[in-house]
Amino acid sequence: MITPKIKEFLLQQEGTFLTPAEKLAVIVDSHNIDHAKLLLSHMTYSRVPVVTEDNRYFGTISLREISLYQLENGLSDDELNRDISLIAKTDGPTVPADYDLEEVMRELIDEAFLPVVGPNQEFLGIITRKSILKAVNALVHHFHFEEK
Description:
Number of strands: 7
Strand order of the largest sheet: 1-7-6-5
Largest sheet: 4 strands, mixed
Strand content: 15-25%
Distance between the termini: 23 Å
Shape: elongated
Number of helices: 5
Structural class: alpha/beta
Radius of gyration: 18 Å
Helix content: 25-40%
């Protein structure tokens, strides 16, 4: 359990936690693997969200997964014209829009970001480990317990 005063301090910065979907690079689940490979090879992100045509969260994909799939199946770059949905990681954690800060912090130990989804799996955005660490950094530099 997070100490209430510390949780209150962190939640004052909650507006900076979510990166909205419209500000993110995403891949549509019906895009070809070769398209995803090209996009990922030109980005600084190691993993990106995968959504459906109607903006429902589907999973995530990384260049590493694409490379492994290509290697395991002996495929040339020209043979990667298959839907990304075949290899997208669909079992990763997500959080609801009304997420619990403790749950987010626990999950971000092992994940670089957490997809935030609405009640009907609509993709709302992501919470990154970096955004939480910025809040923790502010906490350790600016938080003061009241003296009694």
